[in-house]
Write the structure tokens for this entry.
Amino acid sequence: MAKIYFIDVTNRDGVQTARLGLSKLEKTMINMYLNEMGVFQSEFGFPTTKHESRYLQANMELAKMGVLRPIRLGGWIRAVVTDVERAFKLVPTIKHLNLSISTSDQMIRGKFLGAKSREDVTNMMVDAVEAARARGIESIGVNAEDASRTKIDFLIRFASTAREHGADRFRYCDTLGYDNPFTIYESVKTVAENVGIPIELHCHGDLGMAVANSLAGAKGVIDGGQDAYINTTINGIGERAGNADLVATALAITKSKGFAGKYKLAKPVNLTKAWKISRFASYAFEVPIPINQPGVGANAFAHSSGIHADGVLKDPENYELYSFDEVGRGEPELVETGRAICSGEYTGISGFKHIMGQMAVSFDDTAQAEAVLELARYANVEAQKPLIEDELLFIAKYPEIARKLLTLTPLQ
Ligand SMILES: [Zn+2]
């Protein structure tokens, strides 16, 4: 039976969100955490954007070193030949790409302003797929932007053409969050049955249904006989009202009524990492986790009213679908309430040795400590907030990778 995979797009959809962004080190930490969590693929950035080049190359190096493994790292570009060429020029080692183009009449008319037809859009996609294939790409996803507002017969033709020319997956983008669970189920099941290609579900929350639509979409794709790939972001951070939240979607697949028995993840997602990854994304994006966020919100396991508190004390299953330790909660956390020595862009060697010493990191000599300190300072310049322990440990462990991540010289 067909299975469900996760493709997290925090490092693409999440960072292109208005008012939000991540440093290159923070993006790298997200890839590390997604890998630990068992997520199938991270859409790790934009290979045609110059300031991403060194970050993308450094992360490809981490993959080669076996550090970012088994997670797959996929880039996102427009489905045009010039983007494919530029992606391979700037990131020659790129192995996985998603190629995106608009397919709805609204967007073909409204974005290309009469200059392109459905056939033109299809041809541009075909040329881009063939260009990527010719350069030895390992996997290609073809994205139909605004698929939910695209006439189903054209969507089938477009996806069939993509498959015939070597696309491995078809991304059904509910770009505006227009679908509901009933409509997306029907649409993607129809595409799966008629085209015979694995389908990605890319759902947005403009109507509050991103997770529900992802689940219904996955069911539709699997009922249509194909593997389903759900696009998620950490804490649901994404364009406008956001995307399907990674943790909530994983919980919904594994815990919701009657779903897990029939529709399964290809490989388990380690939900005990949920608390850590959500907290990190919240800190890095500087966006608080809502108090009522599934699994990781402050109130997700809080009870105060008489009947609920009494019930949960007698048996937690009275009022909890899953336990806090399943999402990595319950460990006491040490919060410094007195003097704090933090990392910063002007940190000196004494404070730095103190910080690293608290993490039980020792250096061979002062020169080595100073070299790592210098990198940590640069990381602070980019992040503009104290580095967390894992970031400092990463820099100490992979100083040469960190140097590449932190080199932001504008390319010619
Ligand atoms: Zn999106």
User: Anything to note?
Assistant: DSSP finds 16 helices and eight strands in the chain. Strands lie at 4-8, 41-45, 72-78, 96-102, 139-145, 169-174, 199-203, 228-232.
